[in-house]
Amino acid sequence: MASLGDHDGIEIIKSISDAPPTHYMVKIESFSLLTKHAIERYETESFEAGGYKWKLVLYPNGNKIKNMKDHVSVYLALADSSSLGPGWEVSAVFRLYFLDQNKDNYLILQGKERRFHTVKREWGFDKFIPTVTFFDASSGYLMEDTCMFGADVFVSKERRSGRGECLSMIKDATSSKHVWKIENFSKLDKESYDSNTFFAGDRKWKIRFYPSGTKQGTGTHLSVYLILADPDSVSDGTKIFTEFTIRIFDQLQGRHIAGKVTKWFSRSSLENGWAKYVSMVYFTQPNSGLLLKDVCLVEADVCVHGITSAL
């Protein structure tokens, strides 16, 4: 083996071997059609090595995200980290292969041990082979518009770090409104009633209405809450930063009752609102307009501004 020194900031070793990779091999026929069909990035199916699933990623004309030109870029990516839990890390040494079809041997590039984790799932070589070399038939890497490349992966260690989180604020967040018509109010005899579900910020919500109040509002006030309607979709460590307004419409003069607040919703905090939203005395007054012909109208205006998820 021969050290190539620093290769775009990556210490690599270049070697030639007659033996093919043991973990995965890819054959691409009609390689030129990748460019014709504007396929700038090709990901292989996943393969297993060292107890983990991996993919090879090929940029036939260079990784434009890194402003690579005149080179073929090849990377190894961890394919499935969903089962590893928060804070996972996998360290691996890997070799990437390209077959020289003239000499029937393999060009191998090997870097130092790399850490694969949530933020960095992909490592490899921006400048694996110059395109002028790759497309030159005398080099043997592309023959009759066909090439073969592969990988060996050796997991050296794995680690789970302490818990962490990532807060993603949503730029230009938009609100969603839902109006709920509650009829025959005087005949409501259950402790609480829920509206139909509605979407805001890609989450399902409901309005929950307590006609006789709840908690410190029991017997004296109407209680109204916003409910995160699908708790199974909220994983541990997820928090949803939400601004919402709940209104009861004044159907006579338009002087609506409204409460506005920003709250964090999570698995342990699925509902937020007001136990003393409006007094029953005022709500039932004919001139308040809140209850007209035994009907009241409740509106939720919901906007999700950010989501915190576990790393």
Model description:
This is MATH domain-containing protein. It holds the Pfam family MATH_2. Residues 21-153, 175-302 form the MATH domain. With 311 residues, the chain is mainly beta. It has helices at 32-36, 131-134, 280-283; strands at 2-7, 10-17, 24-28, 42-43, 47-49, 52-59, 71-78, 88-100, 105-111, 114-117, 122-130, 147-160, 165-169, 176-182, 193-194, 198-200, 203-210, 221-228, 239-248, 257-265, 271-279, 296-310. Strands 1, 2, 3, 8, 9, 10 and 12 form a seven-stranded antiparallel β-sheet that branches. The longest helix has 5 residues, at 32-36. The radius of gyration is 30 Å and the shape is elongated.
Task: Tell me briefly what this model is.
By secondary structure, the protein is mainly β. It has three helices and 22 strands.
Mean pLDDT: 89
Order of helices and strands: EEEHEEEEEEEEHEEEEEEEEEEHE
The main β sheet shows up as: 7 strands, antiparallel
Q: Treating each run of at least 4 consecutive H or I residues as one helix, how many helices?
A: 3
Low-confidence stretches: 1-9
Number of DSSP strand runs: 22
Radius of gyration: 30 Å
Structural class by secondary-structure content = mainly beta
Distance between the termini: 39 Å
Specify the overall morphology. elongated
Helix content: under 10%
Strand content: over 45%
InterPro entries: MATH/TRAF_dom (IPR002083), TRAF-like (IPR008974)
Protein name: MATH domain-containing protein
Pfam family, one: MATH_2
Domain MATH: 21-153, 175-302
